[in-house]
Amino acid sequence: MPAISKSEKKLKQEQDILQHFPAFLSYNKNDVAATISFSHGSNLTQQQKDALWSLFETNMKDIYTADQQKWNPGAKKRELFHEDARYLLASDAEGQLLGYTHFRFELEDNLLSDDELQLHRLGRHSSVVYCYELQLAPAMHRKGLGRRLMQMLELLALKFSMDMVLLTVQRSNSAAQAFYERLGYRQHPTCPARNDFEDFDGTDPGHRILFKDLRRKS
What's the pLDDT tens digit per position in 45-60? Predict the structure, then answer.
């Protein structure tokens, strides 16, 4: 991965990115009253970690199994609570976790030919807000909270002049794919086709790579 720029280093070190978006610190719609807060993965309390993991396991364990992916709680927890992890946490008045997004600021290689890069108007690298997880409590589905959290990631990308929001979604999770497509996400050019897994040792990677391009059109 290419070296990260000074501005991106500063962004990764910022302690409270929500200070730039005071109007988005609460969500009150569709019978949902939530407060949205920001945290570094390394600053999460054990109670928060337990709540994050419980929600992830509830939502994703069966989906991972359906895609024949190895269910590895230890590895997943290391990813979730890595020092580079960033979180938007939506909680109710009692502090109960209603949903969250785990994201990171990254510089992604675009492993494409020169012709493909030109076709898709991409450089060799893209600065991205990478959405690792968007998880909602079952009662929060179709309440607009997931849309709000994704909107906030896009605002972050725009505020700090990032190229795009990038994410992966499990191929078997058709509801999540439809949700992201409604928000304007489309398949990234580097996403492997279903029958083209040479880069994965012949193994279906089990996911699609989606993105929303936020660069200003010239």
Answer: 999 999 999 999 999 9
- The reported pLDDT for the residue numbered 1 is 47
Helix (H) or strand (E) holding 211: strand 207-213
Q: Which two tokens stand for residue 62?
A: 């069966």
Q: How far is 189 from 211, CA to CA, in rounded Å? A: 9
In this prediction, residue 123 carries a pLDDT of: 63
Q: CA-CA distances (angstroms) from residue 200 to 1, 8, 67, 144, 190?
A: 18, 30, 14, 35, 13
Query: Using CA atoms, how far apart are residues 9 and 175, in angstroms rounded to an integer?
Result: 35
Q: Which residues of the chain have pLDDT under 70?
A: 1-15, 66-69, 109-125, 192-205, 217-218
Q: Which residues pair with 99 in a beta bridge?
A: 90, 136
Query: At 152, which amino acid appears?
Result: M
Amino acid letter, residue 128? V
Encoded tokens for 121: 């108007």
Amino acid at 92: D
Cα 133 versus chain centre, distance: 5
Query: Following DSSP, what letter does each residue of 126-165 receive, concatenated?
Result: EEEEEEEEEEE-GGGTTSSHHHHHHHHHHHHHHHTT-SEE
In angstroms, rounded to a whole number, what is the distance separating the alpha carbons of residues 89 and 102?
A: 9
- Give the pTM: 0.85
Distance of CA 113 to the CA centre of its chain: 26
